[in-house]
């Protein structure tokens, strides 16, 4: 998953979603938060301030496993999706906590804001070793096309694996998009 994946989600959601609602964080800009914490934090803070969206979706790669973070700055909430239900990487969590404290302080005009509230819905769990990227794309698709912005545990409470049809559909959508980018010369 790269910035091309973000373009895929932007393109797929464009006709179905209020584009002012969602912002997408570039995976390469939040990757490796341990060694680049200040840059990651600055990127998040700047993008949130400049883009003025309600929610920010960020695919994050840690130890060869993709996860999804949804930042909700106005509610001071972070939603994390992990198809293996691993604990979050402490480095990205600390980076997001710091960025969110700064962001919510500027929104609310007060310093010393509390750390964000973390929500981890018990959503789909992968069974294999390769599907995590598909799960992230599935969650992003559901959030954006469903216009979701709260009640995360209500919308994402199915702990079963994604079925073959859902993964096949994601693969087809991705392949179609990739071929369209290739044809356009991007």
Strand order of the largest sheet: 1-2-3-4-5
Q: Please state roughly what percent of the residues sit in beta strands, choosing from under 5%, 5-15%, 15-25%, 25-35%, 35-45% or over 45%.
A: 15-25%
> Which geometry do the CA atoms define?
globular
Number of strands: 5
Helix fraction, binned, reads 40-55%
Number of helices: 7
Judged by helices, strands and strand pairing, the structural class is alpha/beta
Distance between the termini: 16 Å
Quote the average pLDDT.
Answer: 85
Order of SSEs, N→C?
HEHHEEEHEHHH
Low-confidence stretches: none
Radius of gyration using CA atoms only: 16 Å
Biggest sheet: strands, sense, closure?
5 strands, mixed
Oligomer: single chain
Which key features would you list for this structure?
alpha/beta, 48% helix
Overview of this protein structure:
Helix 1 packs parallel to helix 5 (132-146), helix 3 packs parallel to helix 4 and helix 5 crosses helix 7 (164-184). The chain has helices spanning 3-14, 27-30, 37-51, 90-108, 132-146, 152-155, 164-184; strands at residues 22-25, 55-62, 65-72, 77-81, 117-119. The model has no long low-confidence stretch (mean pLDDT 85). With 186 residues, the chain is of the alpha/beta class. It contains seven helices and five strands. It is globular, with a radius of gyration of 16 Å. Helices cover 48% and strands 15% of the residues. The longest helix has 21 residues, at 164-184. Strand 4, helix 4 and strand 5 (117-119) form a beta-alpha-beta unit. Strands 1-2-3-4-5 form a five-stranded mixed beta sheet, sandwiched between helices.
């Amino acid at each position: 998953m790269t910035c091309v994946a973000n373009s895929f989600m932007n393109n797929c959601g464009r006709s179905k979603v209020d584009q002012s609602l969602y912002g997408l964080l570039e995976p390469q800009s939040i990757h490796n938060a341990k060694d680049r914490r200040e840059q990651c934090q600055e990127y998040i803070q700047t993008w949130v301030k400049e883009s003025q969206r309600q929610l920010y979706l960020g695919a994050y790669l840690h130890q060869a496993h993709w996860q999804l973070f949804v930042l909700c700055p106005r509610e001071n909430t972070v939603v994390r999706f992990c198809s293996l239900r691993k604990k979050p990487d402490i480095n990205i969590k600390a980076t997001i906590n710091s960025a969110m404290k700064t962001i919510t302080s500027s929104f609310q005009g007060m310093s010393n804001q509390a750390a964000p509230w973390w929500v981890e819905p018990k959503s789909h769990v992968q069974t294999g070793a390769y599907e995590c990227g598909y799960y992230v794309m599935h969650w992003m698709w559901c959030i954006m096309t469903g216009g979701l912005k709260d009640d995360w545990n209500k919308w994402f409470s199915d702990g079963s694996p994604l079925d073959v049809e859902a993964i096949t559909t994601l693969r087809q959508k991705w392949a179609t998009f990739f071929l369209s980018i290739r044809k356009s010369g991007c």
